[in-house]
Design brief:
129 residues, alpha/beta, five-stranded mixed sheet
Length: 129
């Protein structure tokens, strides 16, 4: 964020329903971790996070900012008590992709109880609490 609290990235946390049956979904736009994000998205039932990493060479040689890396996304979901983590952007662009097996391997090491889903084009899902 800049000095007055404006952020370069956008995301939405939407709550469907009320009370115990409510479902909170956090859908991040292109972004990475920043101070205060955890508090903003705490107890989201579903997190949809862009996961394809970022690094010096992507930024300085290809002008690609990048997003969460696997560890950041998984740790955020775990710390926020998220039920279902949906990584996106993993294979959106050939020049900025992440092998989904790396995500799954990292998840199995860091948070094996974390539910996740890797979508295929055109796939739908119904989520029940």
């Amino acid at each position: 964020p800049d000095d007055i609290g404006n952020f370069c990235e956008g995301g939405f946390r939407v709550v469907f329903g009320e009370g115990e049956d409510a479902i909170a979904v956090y859908h991040a736009g292109d972004c990475c971790l920043y101070d205060g994000l955890e508090e903003r998205v705490m107890h989201s039932d579903i997190m949809i996070l862009p996961v394809n990493g970022r690094d010096y060479y992507r930024l300085h040689e290809k002008d690609i900012i990048g997003n969460f890396d696997c560890t950041e996304a998984i740790t955020l979901a775990k710390r926020c008590h998220t039920d279902l983590l949906i990584p996106v952007h993993i294979d959106l662009y050939d020049v900025n992709a992440l092998n989904p097996a790396i995500f799954v391997d990292t998840l199995e090491k860091l948070s094996p109880q974390q539910k996740y889903h890797l979508f295929r084009p055109g796939e739908r899902m119904i989520y029940c609490k």
